[in-house]
Write a structure and sequence with these properties.
Number of strands: 46
Number of helices: 48
Shape: globular
GO molecular function, one term: protein serine/threonine kinase activity
Catalytic activity: L-seryl-[protein] + ATP = O-phospho-L-seryl-[protein] + ADP + H(+); L-threonyl-[protein] + ATP = O-phospho-L-threonyl-[protein] + ADP + H(+)
CATH superfamily of one domain: Ribonuclease Inhibitor
Protein name: non-specific serine/threonine protein kinase
Oligomer: single chain
Helix content: 40-55%
Distance between the termini: 100 Å
CATH class of one domain: Alpha Beta
Largest sheet: 22 strands, mixed
Main location: membrane
Organism: Oryza punctata (Red rice)
Strand content: 5-15%
CATH architecture of one domain: Alpha-Beta Horseshoe
Length: 1501
């Protein structure tokens, strides 16, 4: 019974019962507020019922009420009760002290209460001291804790069991591990709690060795470690990265049988392995946790973040989201911060931005902790704009966030913005730290802003970071990069102990500004200080040597760097190549570059070498350098300019003109040039074509003045040229006009002109000497560059090749023995007189029949590097199996008719490209011989090769492209094909390959394109695409592959095209499309996929073509399809989708959709529900055939002005055909057949613009090899006619199998571009118009099964392209026309017309009367379009099927009854079955053993 609260006074027993009841309510989980309300009511009754004569029960009850208040954390109520208690005991004080110590906000009150206790005369107990020590720890007040320590020693409580442990906890919280260890060492007896406390303290402050030593002492002392002990020490191992000792502790966890690992211990193990980077073991630990909590998930995700594995972190986060139904594992801000940090290195579109959305959904967008990681993610992905938007949206900001904005903009080269945020940070009142100052200083260093840097220096001093190594190092770097070397040196000298960064900054500053002696001196001092130089140090030293031309010194430092074990990087090679090249040591520079790993990756090295070749006029090395650059970037303008200057320096003006001509074709629009100047604290920024500056007029006037001075100098130059030609000195040749600019710069020429004019006025004789000297030098220069002469050996080889041609073709004009300068012949390029390139591509050489071994003569060209005979139609064997072509590098003989085995070029050691596509080479492919050269590209497509794909391609270590398409190759792919390290392009489509695809495909990590389509591969697709991170194109279509779609395609971030069509793929589409943001084509048609369209597919915003036709997909089209704004082609034909109205409402929002194929879907939709559609403005192809649509033709179609193809056949549409359908200007293909349209044909059909004056099939819609549209073919093959682009569509008007009436309009004759007119199976009447003969392009005219009368116009014989003409089953009469295409038509085309006669056989009257058998066969051949025939056929079929099912069921029931009721029959039946299977088993085993022995004998005879 609850106490009676209505009484004003209660006895002690009643109050005690009330307190017990309230405590019971608290333990039972009742709401805290309700229990507190009852406690306060008891407090009120206690005050009212207490009397001075009964203090003892009052104190006892007060202690109980104080305990209740303490449990409820009602501190003010407890203090009020304590103050009102007449004689509180020590227990009363201890209860309140304990409550105060647990609340940091009330901890200071605990010290005042302890003083009251001491002043009251009561002696504090051990719990009193423990509570006081706990309060000191909560306040991190070491002084107060030490005072409590002294009080405990005075009162003699250090020998108790609980006070020393409280002291350990207090010192640990106050950051005094030394005092904690001293207390621990002074303890007489130590229990497990004390050991755990001291070890936790040491681990917390980084004293792992001490903690592990104490752990060992604890174990040796016989005290078994607890879960808390091991958790603490494991945490220390994780912080220290000590995996070895962590594994030892893990062994303890496994070995201790009495230990039951709880969740904290398992999380500690997980944290240790994650912190040590052993994620594999961490995953094993995680998988063994039965129910991981949020700490477990956060630890795992943080571990992936620590090793930079963003994909795994994202995967773990997705798994966490999948189990978040449990409230304990809802992601918090630590989870999101960890996963965002892990995905920072991934593109923001794939990881960061979706996670940002998760942050917003979780309501954590205001979290500063998460905001910092998001900012770092955006800056890492070089999206400062997104970072600024996020930063502005945050209401709460801390100094870390401001520092991130400064550092992020500084790292991206946006120094001005970085400084702006730094100033704003100061204005907002935030205190800067060393990192923010360092970032701001780095920005000023990049901006060359010395004044701003000096102001930041003052801020460093003001903030007290002058001695900070981070800020001081940035100051040194700022002054050094701004050229203020004395300031940099002064700051450097004030650093007490400079680190390597400070030394490198100072050495680099002196080196880059030409003071190499100081740089070398500082380097020596750095070595004497005991610092080891790194790669940055040697970059500074080599740069100093390069600037000052110190070759030997540079070689010395290069040797020192290699001795120190530092691998040279790109900047090291750049400095060294520049040093050697400027010194004229070009051969040494080439040798150094050939040893560099950057030779093929970084063309800048070759440009440096090419620039020096101009100075030293070294043509061979310069041309080689230019070839290396242009091989990587053929459109590089700067290299063309340098090469042109090189040839100009040698006087090769014909080559210069050719290069300049080529450069004009390569010129691209450049970004406008920018400049800025600071005047009077104002920065003025200018750009090309800038007219916005306030002082633009003054700028124009200054430019005009400068232009006038330049024109004056030009006039002086012309006068100087006239001086050179005086006194009969001629310096002009017929081939080359006078020009002195190649060897004298414009500035030098202008100065020299002024000098000579001045001398001419004052001292004519002196100037005469100078002009004669200059004229002599100039004549030598001009006449030193004659055209190259041809090498006699090369000339003989080319003449022998030309003699092998019976007659000269148009492509070889200029070849012949009369001209010995073969370098000027068509298609030939020379280098120093030797033929290096022969380009005779597309020269119609097939008109020249080859005699003898004409092609073999080309093998005598010893320096030939490039041979191009493509697209000539040459035939016969190609002679390349001997020792010819020793220097060949590129061979292109594609698009010819060469036969025999393929060429191998055994003597060519530099062959890199071999293209023999579209020839007739046959036999096997000799991979071993091909790989004897460093071949990179092998194109063997469209030949007649047979046999297996050969093994041996693995020897092609640098092979990039392998194309074996369209041959007759069989067998499976060899295993060594998967070991080509640099293979990027693998294409073996249209062969007869079989077998399964090996998982070793994942070893080809550099692949960008895989095309294995149109083969016979079987099995599942290996799920290894997560290793192919560069894959862009995947085509495995038209094979026999099965299984599910590989999920690892989700990780191919560069993927653009995926084609898996025409296979037997099954399951749901489970690919994670959220990462495939570059995907533009996805074709999975003609498979067995089921389920719904995955919502993630709509995240592929660049998707242009999507084909999911002929699968088993179901459901409605998701609303998110609106996001596919780039989609132009969509095919969902042959599935089970529903709700056509909803699908069209979604798809109308796709602005670029041009082709929509929805055949055989959405059955039973009504067109009346589609009236609100207003989109599809660019629609060109719309196919809604066989959808069982109801209603009339939708009115929204009239707004599709670009519609070219419309197919709504095989539906249940009715009503009249609207006239506006014929007014669509682009429409040229209409199929309304197999519906129930009635009425007459609209006249607008005879005035369709696309069929009168323009070619209706000129649309631009194209889908590559996707099926834009498939039309049934009525031939016996049963195959469909596939059209992939509008230009292949035949313009057609198909209205057959409807209920149309009226005459055939004569105006159809205007449709001169119409190819197909099908009006069969309707109720048309009247004669066949004679005007139909004007349809000059007509190929098919079907008027069968109507009510036409009259005769067949003889003018129809003028239709020369007419291939099908059918007028059967009408009421036509007269003679059948003869001549033209009518002579090819059979009698079946005229049957069913009793009054129609054939002039070819006039012996019988009415020979085209109805033939029942012929009628039946003809009606069946027309897709059973006659409704009565179709209905009767379906009825008979259904009846036959029902009869068969009934007979089967009756027979099965009879057999079952016999076996059930007749036991002898049942025994005999099962005996017969057992005997049959036993016999089958024996026969099978015997035959299998026989085959096995046969094959073993075959393999080992």
């Amino acid at each position: 019974m609850p106490p009676d609260w209505s009484r004003s006074r209660l006895g002690p027993c009643s109050l005690e019962e009330a307190l017990a009841a309230a405590a019971a309510l608290l333990r039972s989980g009742s709401p805290r507020r309700a229990v507190l309300r009852r406690a306060r009511a008891i407090h009120a009754l206690f005050v009212v019922s207490s009397t001075p004569s009964s203090p003892t029960p009052t104190t006892f009850l007060a202690n109980q009420l104080l305990s209740l208040y303490a449990h409820l954390s009602a501190i003010p109520d407890a203090l009020a009760l304590l103050r009102s208690t007449p004689r509180p005991s020590v227990v009363s004080y201890n209860t309140v002290l304990s409550a105060l110590s647990r609340a940091p906000r009330h901890a200071p009150e605990g010290f005042r209460l302890f003083r009251r206790l001491h002043a009251s005369g009561l002696r504090p107990t051990a719990p009193s001291l423990c509570a006081l020590l706990r309060a000191a720890g909560e306040l991190h007040d070491r002084r107060a804790g030490a005072a409590a320590h002294s009080q405990a020693a005075t009162l003699g409580f250090l020998a108790s069991d609980i006070v020393p442990t409280a002291l350990l906890q207090m010192y640990s919280q106050c950051g005094a591990p030394g005092d904690a260890n001293q207390v621990f060492d002074e303890m007489a007896t130590r229990d497990g709690v004390a050991w755990n406390c001291v070890m936790h303290c040491n681990v917390r402050y980084g004293y792992l060795d001490r903690a592990l030593g104490q752990f060992c002492r604890m174990v040796r002392g016989g005290l078994p470690p607890t879960e808390s002990t091991l958790s603490s020490v494991l945490s220390g191992c994780g912080r220290a990265g000590d995996r070895r000792r962590g594994r030892v502790l893990h062994g303890w966890v496994v070995k201790l049988e009495e230990l039951d690992p709880d969740m904290p211990l398992q999380n500690a193990l997980l944290d240790m392995y994650s912190s040590c980077g052993d994620l594999e073991t961490a995953l094993c630990v995680f998988e063994r946790i039965e129910t991981p909590d949020l700490v477990s998930w956060n630890t795992l995700i943080a571990g992936f973040s620590g090793v930079g594995n963003g994909f795994s972190a994202m995967h773990a986060f997705v798994q966490l989201k999948a189990v978040q139904f449990d409230e304990r594992v809802v992601p918090d801000e630590y989870t999101l911060a960890a996963v965002v940090s892990a995905c920072a290195t991934l593109p923001a579109m794939f990881g960061g931005k979706p996670l940002h959305a998760e942050v917003i959904k979780a309501g954590l967008e205001s979290s500063v902790f998460v905001g910092n990681t998001l900012l770092n993610m955006y800056f890492t992905n070089e999206e400062p704009g997104s970072a600024r938007i996020l930063f502005d949206s945050l209401t709460q900001k801390d100094v870390i966030m401001w520092t991130e904005m400064v550092a992020g903009h500084s790292s991206l080269g946006e120094g001005e913005l970085a400084l702006r945020y730094f100033v704003s940070m100061l204005q907002e009142g935030y205190s800067v730290d060393s990192f923010s100052l360092s970032s701001a200083l780095n920005s000023t260093a990049e901006l060359a802003g010395l004044k701003q840097g000096e102001m930041l220096h003052a801020q460093v001093v003001k903030s007290g970071y002058e001695g900070n190594i981070c800020a001081s190092g940035s100051l040194v770097d700022m002054y050094a990069k701004n050229g203020a070397l004395p300031g940099a040196y002064l700051v450097f000298c004030n650093i007490q102990k400079p680190d390597l960064k400070c030394w490198n900054s100072l050495i680099g500053g002196y080196g880059n500004h030409g003071n190499s002696e100081m740089a070398f001196k500082l380097f020596g001092e750095m070595i004497r200080d005991g610092l080891q130089p790194d790669h940055v140090t040697y970059i500074s030293l080599l740069s100093a040597c390069s600037h000052c031309g110190l070759v030997e010194k540079g070689k010395f430092y290069w040797f020192c760097m290699m001795t120190d074990g530092i691998m040279p990087g790109f900047k090291h090679y750049t400095s060294m190549v520049s040093l050697l090249s400027r010194a004229g040591l070009l051969d040494e520079a080439v040798d150094l570059m050939m040893k560099s790993p950057f030779t093929k990756k970084c063309p800048e090295l070759w440009r440096i070498l090419l620039s020096s070749c101009i100075t030293f006029r070294n043509l061979s090395i310069g041309v080689h350098a230019a070839e290396q650059v242009l091989e990587q970037d053929p459109d590089d303008i700067s290299t063309h300019i340098l090469l042109s200057n090189l040839y100009a320096s040698l006087g090769k003006w014909d080559v210069v003109a050719e290069i300049r001509k080529k450069m004009r074709g390569l010129m691209v629009e450049k970004e406008p040039g920018l400049s800025w100047v600071e005047m009077k604290n104002v920065v003025h920024v200018f750009s090309a074509d800038d007219e916005c500056h306030s002082q633009i007029d003054d700028c124009h006037r200054e430019l005009l003045r400068l232009k006038g001075n330049m024109e004056l100098l030009d006039t002086c130059e012309n006068e100087f040229m006239s001086i050179l030609t005086k006194d009969g000195i001629r310096i002009q040749t017929p081939e080359q006009p006078v020009s002195i600019k190649p060897f004298i710069s414009c500035k030098e020429m202008s100065l020299l002109s002024q000098f000579c004019l001045c001398l001419q006025r004052k001292a004519g004789s002196c100037c005469r000497c100078i002009r004669i000297l200059l004229a002599f030098v100039f004549v030598l220069h001009v006449h030193g560059g004659h055209s190259q002469t041809c090498d006699p050996t090369d000339l003989a080889a080319l003449l022998a090749f030309s003699d092998g041609l019976d007659r000269m073709g148009a492509g070889l004009v200029g070849w012949g023995p009369n001209d010995t300068s073969c370098c000027s012949w068509t298609g030939i390029s020379c280098d120093l007189g030797r033929v290096v390139e022969l380009d005779l591509s597309n020269r119609s050489l097939s008109r020249n029949s080859l005699r003898g071994e004409a092609l073999a003569q080309l093998g005598r060209l010893a320096n030939l590097r490039v041979l191009d005979l493509s697209a000539n139609g040459l035939s016969g064997p190609f002679p390349a199996s001997g020792g010819g072509f020793p220097a060949i590098e590129v061979v292109n003989i594609s698009s010819n008719g060469f036969t025999g085995p393929h060429p191998v070029f055994p003597g060519a050691r530099n062959l890199t490209v071999l293209d023999i596509t579209e020839n007739a080479f046959s036999g096997d492919i000799n991979a071993t011989a091909l790989c004897s050269s460093p071949v990179k590209i092998l194109r063997f497509s469209a030949n007649a090769f047979s046999g297996d794909v050969p093994a041996g391609f693995s020897q092609c270590k640098v092979l990039n492209e392998l194309s074996l398409d369209s041959n007759g190759l069989t067998g499976s792919l060899p295993n060594d094909l998967y070991t080509i390290p640099e293979l990027r392009w693998l294409s073996i489509q249209e062969n007869q390959l079989s077998g399964s695809l090996d998982e070793a495909l994942g070893n080809l990590s550099e692949l960008t394109q895989i095309d294995l389509s149109n083969n016979m591969f079987t099995g599942t697709i290996p799920d290894v695409f997560g290793k192919l991170m560069s894959l862009e194109f995947l085509n495995l279509g038209s094979n026999q592959l099965n299984g599910t779609l590989p999920l690892s395609l989700s990780y191919c971030l560069m993927l653009r095209v995926v084609s898996l069509r025409n296979n037997s793929m099954s399951g749901e589409i489970a690919i994670d499309f959220s990462l495939l943001t570059k995907l533009n084509t996805f074709d999975a048609g003609v498979n067995r996929l089921h389920g719904a369209i995955p919502p993630g597919l709509t995240l592929c915003t660049q998707l242009r073509m999507l084909n999911l036709g002929r699968n088993k997909l179901q459901g409605e089209l998701p609303e998110s399809f609106k996001n596919l704004t780039s989609l132009s082609y969509l095919s969902l034909a042959g599935n089970g989708f529903t709700n056509l109205s909803s699908a069209l409402q979604v798809l109308q929002h796709l602005p670029n959709l041009t082709s929509l194929v929805l055949t055989s879907n959405f059955h039973g939709g009504e067109t009346t529900l589609m009236d609100g559609i207003e989109g599809f403005k660019r629609m060109q192809v719309l196919v809604l055939a066989n959808c069982a649509l109801l209603g009339t033709i939708p009115r929204w179609l009239q707004s599709l002005k670009s519609l070219s193809v419309l197919d709504i056949s095989w539906n249940n549409l009715h009503g009249e055909i609207p006239p506006w359908l014929g007014n669509l200007d682009s429409l040229f293909y209409i199929d309304l057949s197999n519906n129930s349209f009635s009425g007459e044909l609209p006249a607008s059909f005879t005035q369709m613009k696309s069929l009168i004056s323009s070619n209706g099939s000129s649309g631009q819609a194209s889908t590559g090899d996707l099926q834009l549209f498939i039309k049934k073919n009525s031939t016996s093959t049963g195959k469909g006619l596939q059209y992939n682009q509008l230009s292949s569509f035949p313009s057609s008007l198909i209205l057959s199998n409807n209920k149309l009436v009226g005459p055939i309009l004569p105006a159809f004759g205007h449709l001169v571009k119409l190819h197909v007119l099908d009006l069969g199976f309707n109720n048309f009447s009247g004669p066949i118009p004679d005007e139909l003969s004007n349809m000059s392009s007509l190929e098919i005219l079907d008027l069968a099964h109507n009510d036409l009368s009259g005769s067949i116009p003889s003018s129809l014989t003028k239709l020369n392209f007419l291939s099908k003409f059918d007028v059967s089953y009408n009421n036509l009469s007269g003679d059948v026309p003869t001549g033209g295409q009518f002579s090819t038509f059979t009698s079946e085309d005229f049957v069913g017309n009793p009054a129609l006669h054939s002039s070819r056989n006039s012996s019988s009257t009415g020979e085209f009367a109805g033939n029942p058998a012929l009628c039946l066969s003809r009606s069946q051949s027309c897709y059973k379009r006659v409704v009565t025939t179709e209905v009767s056929y379906e009825t008979r079929f259904a009846f036959g099927l029902l009869t068969m099912e009934s007979g089967f069921a009756f027979g099965l029931l009879t057999v079952w009854n016999v076996l059930f009721f007749a036991s002898s029959w049942r025994a005999a039946y099962f005996q017969m079955v057992d005997s049959f299977f036993d016999r089958l088993y024996v026969i099978t085993v015997v035959n299998l053993n026989r085959l096995r022995r046969k094959w073993e004998h075959k393999d080992h005879p």
